[in-house]
Amino acid sequence: MRRPLGALVCIGSLAALSTPVAAAHAAAAPRDTCQVQVSAPTVNAAGKIQVTGTRAGCDDRALLRIRIKQARRGPDRTLKSGARVGVNGQFTLKVKCGPAPRTYYAVIVDYRGNAAKSKAARLSCSPTGTPTPTPAPTGTPTPTAKPTGNPTTPTTPPGTVGTAEENEVVRLTNIERQKGGCGPLKHDPQLNKAAHDHSATQAARNQMTHKFPDGPDFVQRIRNAGFTGGSAFAENVAWNQRTPAAVVSDWMKSSGHRANIMNCKFTLIGAGMVKNTKGEPYWTQVFVAK
Fold first, then answer.
1. Which of 169, 162, 221, 230 is nearest to 21 (CA)?
2. How distant, in Å, are the alpha carbons of 38, 191, 197 from that of 284?
3. Cα–Cα distances in angstroms (integers) from residue 262 to residues 91, 100, 131, 224, in the given order
4. Residue 126 pLDDT
């Protein structure tokens, strides 16, 4: 069942840090069921087919197994199988990629009743390991893809911070701040990276959270993105609001999120949005007082 839009917004909160941090926390709704996911096969820089499997929301140890398969007539062929024992986490499996175009997919199972299958991908590689495109079928011209109205990563001019959607979130946030008498926030490239990368991780794991058990908290993610200094920090995250206007509107309807947006001491912002394989957006805002 699809969860209602706006039902999964929450505020980041860390109270035991050496620098002040916004402490508001709205009702979070992390996934409360154990699930596994596996990415569609891609070709990495080394010229190998690669998939990444994830187990999240679980509280028991299990054997997590991934198989990379080649689709073909008759029984599909398992090219490689790998396993890891643990509670939650992710691991990557790789296999050699051949020059002939073939269709691959991956399956994952934890032997606790959880299993998943990736989308299929048609891939090929050159003998040197450099990925080569699969040729389009002959006879019928391949139509040029038209830009969609809400791409995951829109094209932006060189030097611009963030995607079109991310910048629209910043613009709408600053409109709300102006209404309350606060100065505009500047979209910082390092904070944009911190926000975008966290949205990408949430989308890959299909889980909205401020901190994964095996990952850093949001302040450390800001530091990892190269940002230094700062006297106060905060974070907003959300899932499945389909437009920048929808997510900013939902944040403004929540007292905790609104408090972060309307905190006049914040001067910098990073906004990030990445969609999962179902096309559901994961949104992140990080705020810093410089």
1. 230
2. 23, 10, 9
3. 39, 56, 47, 26
4. 59
H-state helical runs in the chain: 164-179, 189-205, 218-224, 244-253, 255-261
Is 276 in contact with 204 (CB distance < 8 Å)?
A: yes
Angle subtended by helix axes 189-205 and 164-179, to nearest 10: 110
User: pLDDT tens digits for 162-201?
Assistant: 999 999 999 999 999 999 999 999 999 999 999 999 999 9
φ, ψ (nearest 5 deg) of residue 46: -85, 0
- What global pTM score does this model have? 0.50
* Single-letter code of the amino acid located at 238: A
d(CA 197, CA 195): 6
The CA–CA distances, whole Å, from 79 to 82, 93, 105, 106, 124 equal: 10, 11, 10, 10, 15
Q: Which of 193, 227, 259 is nearest to 21 (CA)?
A: 259
For strands 281-289 and 268-275, give the pairing. Answer: antiparallel
Quickly list DSSP for 208-271.
Answer: --S--TTS--HHHHHHHTT----SEEEEEEEE---SHHHHHHHHHHSHHHHHHHT-TT--EEEE
